[in-house]
Amino acid sequence: MDFNRIVDKLESTDWSLIMNMEDANEAADNFNTILEMAINENTSYVVPKRSDRVIKPWITPGLMKCQKHRDNLHLEARRNPDNTLIQITYKRYRNFLYALQRKLKTEYENNQIQQNKDNPKKVVENAQKYM
User: Fold this and answer.
1) In a shared domain, residues 55 and 113
2) % helix / strand / coil in the chain, to the nearest 5?
3) Model-level pTM greater than 0.90?
4) By Cβ atoms counted within 10 A, which residue in 1, 37, 63, 80 is the most buried?
5) Do 126 and 104 share a structural domain?
6) Which residues lie closer than 8 Å to 73 by C-beta, 6 or more apart?
7) Is 115 helix (H, G, I), strand (E, B) or coil?
8) What are 80-94's pLDDT values in tens digits?
């Protein structure tokens, strides 16, 4: 949302028509219409890339960066299948990331159970969700 452009649009609008209206409801409707049009004209919607969206609640932004790094290492390992250093680096990082993901998921599940320990219905829902 570009607030400066919205302000400029509203400043350049002729408000005398609304100010001279007899019916307050009609004036309010016209005011809202002008305001909505100014906002809609100066608002852009950005859809985040698929790789930037968090799909699961235990995936943190840092973990997403680690996943991107793992993917880059995988590409490098596939480009250089004869380079053992790159192969070992990729495999170690992949295994490290897998263990980290399991740990974060387990911690998240335990945290959810602890938060809802007084609500049996939520405990059962969480248990079914994670099994």
Assistant:
1) yes
2) 75, 0, 25
3) no
4) 63
5) yes
6) 86, 89, 90, 93, 94
7) helix
8) 999 999 999 999 999
Alpha-carbon distance 131 to 113, whole Å? 13
Cβ neighbours of 102 (radius 10 Å): 10
Least Cα distance to 9 among 37, 41, 38, 29 occurs for: 38
**Distances, alpha carbon 54 to alpha carbons 5, 46, 58, 60, in Å:** 32, 16, 9, 8
The 8-class DSSP code of residue 38 comes to H
Expressed as residue numbers, the domain containing 113 is 50-130
Q: With pLDDT > 70 as the criterion, what percentage of the chain qualifies? A: 95
The residues near 7 (Cβ < 8 Å, ≥ 6 apart) are none
Distance CA 73, CA 50 (A): 20
